[in-house]
Amino acid sequence: MKISMRGRFVTDLAVAALIAAVTAAGYLGWLGWDRNKDVQRDGHVSGPYQAWQVIGLALMLGAVAVAAGLREHPVAAVLSITITMTVCFSITGATEADGDGLWPVGAVLVAIGTFFGIAFVAGLAYAFRVLAQPDRLVRPIGTDRP
């Protein structure tokens, strides 16, 4: 069954919207509820997130990227996850009552890190998918076999 270019575009758009929704839900579930900073005994302030929250979100987003790559939507994963994470982080940073105003720097770092991390994971999954289907590989010129 051949899918038209319009049908492929609609499918890609739906996949990107689904990935964005899952990413936003993951951000809210892992990080969105914790807005309190922790003050240590020595006066050092950390947070608001604990390491387990960030690791959990990273693993969840990695699983989404793998699923998208295996289903041949790595670009949708990279763009949707990167944009959604950056917007969620920016909203959190901009609305923080006791913020220091450096959230734009953090947003740029989130965008860069998310882009390269998700591109790597989704790209590997997509490459695995392509290599697992030898009939889809390009055949050398003048030969009948891959």
Helix/strand-derived class?
mainly alpha
N-to-C terminal Cα separation, in Å? 24 Å
Number of helices: 4
Global mean pLDDT: 87
* Unreliably modeled segments: none
Q: Work out the number of β strands.
A: 2
Characterize the main sheet.
2 strands, antiparallel
**H and E string:** HEEHHH
| Helix percentage range | 55-70%
Strand ordering within the main sheet: 1-2
Q: Using the CA coordinates, give the radius of gyration.
A: 20 Å
Question: What overall geometry do the principal axes of the alpha carbons give?
Answer: elongated
Strand fraction equals: under 5%
Question: What does the model show?
Answer:
β1 (38-39) and β2 (45-46) form a beta hairpin. Strands 1-2 form a two-stranded antiparallel sheet. The chain has four helices and two strands. The chain has 146 residues and is mainly alpha-helical. The radius of gyration is 20 Å and the shape is elongated. The chain is 67% helix and 3% strand. The longest helix is centred in the last third of the chain and has 29 residues, at 103-131.
Summarize the structure.
This protein is mainly alpha-helical. The chain has helices at 5-32, 51-70, 74-94, 103-131, and strands at residues 38-39, 45-46. The protein has a two-stranded antiparallel ribbon.
Question: Keywords, please?
Answer:
146 residues, mainly alpha, two-stranded antiparallel sheet, 4 helices
Question: What is the fold's blueprint, element by element?
Answer:
Layout: H1 5-32, E1 38-39, E2 45-46, H2 51-70, H3 74-94, H4 103-131
Antiparallel strand pairs: 1-2
